[in-house]
Write a structure and sequence with these properties.
alpha/beta, Rossmann fold
Length: 278
């Protein structure tokens, strides 16, 4: 997909964050964009903001809960009947709720799997038959750095993002011979409303493991994603640090664990020292 002119792109989680940034960039290149998210008011606001910048653009909004398979299936059947089969599907809907394992209620584990993993599966399942019938399409699944290197505090979120990775690995092998491309994105911390929500719950150790790494802008991540789609890349690693972390984790394998253990131990020692001072 060298150009997005007249491309029909469906973006889940499209009312904010990376999804909205992708919509903005695609519209700038002449794409037709459909946003799918749960909140109708936020969708309407997102569409209005996009139309302010691109008054002649073709933008539609679709409200559905990606964790509700029957609702997603019915809505996307209507979508395909009215607008056609998407050339580009971007599964950007997701959420993170970190915390220590023993403190996280089971409902959080259910929610992380439902939104991040099953939401991706349900939307993809509803659209792949039409893509196969046409013989073309490109699916972009957004995971996380925690989807290849999980850390302290992400037993629920990271596991769900690992599931997105496993799903995408197999999906790519199945669909590529039939004309459909799959891309898998591992974004680091990105300055979105979701990150602000997540930061409320991060244990101190989780913050320390993130170190001094900068937070990327949604626009930068969106640019990296579309650049990867253009070259039919399977793995898309936004930002230099993400690429370094990915390569190092692949080279070291389980050898990365002593490094992470040291960082955890050092943070816990510092916390105890600060508590003793008080």
């Amino acid at each position: 997909m060298k150009t997005f002119q007249n491309c029909l792109a469906l973006i889940t989680g499209g009312s904010s964050g990376i999804g909205l940034a992708l919509a903005r960039l695609l519209l700038a290149e002449g794409a037709r964009v459909a946003l799918l998210a749960r909140n109708p008011e936020r969708l309407a606001q997102a569409r209005e903001n996009l139309l302010d910048a691109y008054p002649r653009a073709e933008i539609s909004v679709w409200s559905a809960d990606v964790t509700n398979a029957p609702q997603v299936t019915a809505l996307l059947e209507t979508f395909v009947a009215q607008q056609g089969t998407p050339d580009l599907l971007i599964n950007s809907a997701g959420m993170a709720h970190p915390g220590r394992f023993e403190e996280l209620p089971l409902e959080i584990f259910d929610q992380m799997i439902a939104v991040n993993y099953l939401g991706t599966v349900y939307v993809t399942k509803a659209l792949v038959p039409a893509m196969l019938e046409r013989g073309s399409g490109h699916i972009v699944n957004i995971s996380s750095v925690a989807g290849f290197l999980n850390i302290y505090g992400y037993t629920a979120y990271g596991a769900a993002k690992f599931a997105v990775r496993g799903f995408s690995d197999a999906l790519r092998m199945e669909l590529k011979p039939r004309g459909i491309q799959v891309s898998l994105v591992f974004p680091p911390d990105t300055d979105t409303p979701q990150l602000a929500y997540e930061n409320q719950f991060k244990p101190e150790v989780t913050r320390a493991l993130a170190g001094n790494a900068g937070v990327l802008s949604p626009d930068f991540v969106a640019q990296e994603i579309l650049a990867g789609v253009r070259r039919n890349a399977y793995l898309i690693l936004p930002g230099f640090e993400t690429k370094v972390i990915y390569v190092v984790s692949r080279l070291l394998g389980a050898g990365v664990n002593p490094i992470l253990d040291y960082l955890v131990r050092r943070t816990l020692q510092r916390q105890r020292a600060e508590q003793n001072l008080h």
